Amino acid sequence: MTDKKTRSGKLRSIPTAGKKFPPLREVTPETQLEIRSTPAEEMNLYPLDTFEYEYPGSPIEINFTSTEFTAICPFSDFPDFGTLRIRYVPHRRCIELKSLKLYINSFRDVKVFHEHAVNKILADFVEACDPLEVHIEGDFNVRGNIKTVIRASYHREPSKKAPARLARN
């Protein structure tokens, strides 16, 4: 369901099941400013590189902190600043640090909401290295007297082992 304004200005719900919609484009009523996030296919983010973790089955925890995360606010077109904290347990691959730095820095020209940035980073991180678990926190600087902290996590589903074969007599 989605809401639609009637002539009286009241909102009413209309069914949306099964319908495809163009990318979200919003305009603020007061200022008529367009709110447009950069579509994922236009973000041009640096790829995350990985290397083999030589001790699978021996869990370790890896922590990264980047104090200079920057992206563009889709509403105001001003830069947003924050600290990213990434904590993960590798499965078979580890993230290479230089590629992580370049990946994070590539958000500088991207219009993205804080919530979407953290979820995009989580999705790309999981896709790149398939960790056992990962926790990402975006601790964004105060904006308009409001402090924003976004957290997202992923836990790898345990692999299903083949059932043991029964011995025949």
Descriptive terms for the model:
alpha+beta, GTP Cyclohydrolase I, domain 2, two-stranded antiparallel sheet, 10 strands, 36% strand, elongated, disordered N terminus
Description:
The chain is an alpha+beta fold and 169 residues long. It has a domain at 38-155: GTP cyclohydrolase I, C-terminal domain/NADPH-dependent 7-cyano-7-deazaguanine reductase, N-terminal domain (GTP Cyclohydrolase I, domain 2, 2-Layer Sandwich). It is 15% helix and 36% strand. The chain has 2 helices and 10 strands. The chain has helices at 97-105, 114-129; strands spanning 2-5, 11-14, 26-27, 34-35, 50-52, 62-72, 79-89, 93-95, 133-143, 146-155. The strands form 4 sheets. The protein has a 4-stranded antiparallel beta sheet with strand order 6-7-9-10, with helices on one face.
Compact overview of the structure:
The chain is of the alpha+beta class and 169 residues long.
Mean pLDDT: 84
CATH third-level topology of the domain at 38-155: GTP Cyclohydrolase I, domain 2
Number of helices: 2
The backbone outline, from C-alpha atoms, is elongated
- How many strands, what sense, and barrel or not for the largest sheet? 4 strands, antiparallel
Q: What is the CATH class designation of the domain at 38-155?
A: Alpha Beta
Beta-strand proportion: 35-45%
